[in-house]
Amino acid sequence: MLGPPSQLINLENQVVFYYLLEKTVNKGAFLMLYNWKNKTVEYDRAIFFFDRNGVLDDFAFSVENAGYEQN
What we know:
Order of helices and strands: EEEEE
Oligomer: single chain
Shape: rod-shaped
Helix content: under 10%
Structural class: mainly beta
Number of domains: 1
Number of strands: 5
Number of helices: 0
């Protein structure tokens, strides 16, 4: 359902599927005497830990509205 992971990480006894969703919204106006730009980036993460037999061992996720603004 999530598609291919952003990263596959092989640990000693586990395989980690790491998913990262990044959403960027840009707004701006560029005039001769005045420039304005606003950029907002939001990240969501999901991490799944599988044992060597392919059985889900643990998972973690975050839903953040980082609100990181770069002016």
